[in-house]
Amino acid sequence: MSAALAAGRLQHVRRGWYAVPDAPSDVLRAVRVGGALTATSVARLHGLWLLDDSLLHVRVPRAASRLRSPDDVARRLDRTEHGVCVHYRSSVAGTAPASGVARDGLMLSLAEMFRCAGTVPAMVALESALNREVLPMQAIETLRTMVPAWAQRQLDLVSPDSDSGLETIARLLVHRLRVLVRTQVEMPGVRRVDLLVGDRLVIELDGRAFHSGEDFERDRVQDLELMLRGYLVVRLSYRMVTDDWDRTHRAVRELVARGLHRWGRAARPWPVFDEARG
Question: Which CATH architecture has domain 161-278?
């Protein structure tokens, strides 16, 4: 081991812990803290679609003490300064204890996301894992035994069809309107749309990247074709979904209240939407 350290084939991380040179840096940082990488930090290693979260998530035994800086074991941990979220949990049903483990498995990490980040961020990561076939749908039943009771109800809404986290967020929130919402619906001769609310309300989610050129023109031509067929097409940007959802949700709720998600009332005139009425 001394020879491997001298030759650079191993690096010393913390007392009793060594790593090969290409070990993921976040795993090393979690070990320096004194626990195992978990939650969003593990989901990021799998390349899943995630909401913004710059914290390092570390799971430690319940009685853990003397936690250290993720970048310098000589310094005590300051969670705010070092950007660390500590998960005090020795184990979860059906899993191994944190001691002796450098990073949690994806299933345990997703369970921790429900506890730490909440429903929407956890569902975004989970559906991304299903869509990219990192996890099979059968894993949902195992995950159900690892999450709190309130999260088990959310798992009934899981879909593997969401191509992006924006679709997951929009579908979950539109679902609260108690209307039928479907993802990735094929419109013959036009394209596959992100969400179809009710019979005719099409919601398309535009990601962070700005689309221009041929893609931009093609999308608008297809939007026009859908409208000529009687569909109502609404495009939502990344910021409208992630940062301004309350206002966006009120507007979508108003469209549903006017019956514009159903066939037969599209031609009926309506007054200008008064946002103050919510």
Answer: 3-Layer(aba) Sandwich (3.40)
3-class secondary structure, 133: coil
The CA distance from 237 to 21, in Å, is: 40
**What Cα–Cα distance (Å) separates residue 181 from each residue in 92, 154, 165, 168?**
34, 16, 16, 11
**206, 235 Cβ separation under 8 angstroms:** yes
- Residue whose structure tokens are 């184990």: 91
- According to DSSP, the residues that pair with 187 across neighbouring strands are 191
> CB neighbours (10 Å) of residue 263?
11
Q: Judge contact between 76 and 68, C-beta under 8 A.
A: yes
pLDDT tens, 1-53? Answer: 889 988 989 999 998 899 999 999 999 999 999 999 999 999 999 999 998 89
Query: Model confidence over 46-62: pLDDT tens digits?
Result: 999 998 899 999 999 88
The number of C-alpha atoms within 13 Å of 272 and in the hemisphere containing its C-beta is: 3
Residue 205 structure tokens: 């989610």
The number of angstroms, rounded, from the C-alpha of 262 to the middle of its chain's C-alpha atoms is 30
195: nearest Cα among 235, 251, 143? 235
Which residues are paired to 56 by β-bridges?
84
DSSP codes joined into one string, 215-235: HHHHHHHHHHHHHHTT-EEEE
Q: Which part of the chain has CATH 3.40.960.10?
A: 161-278
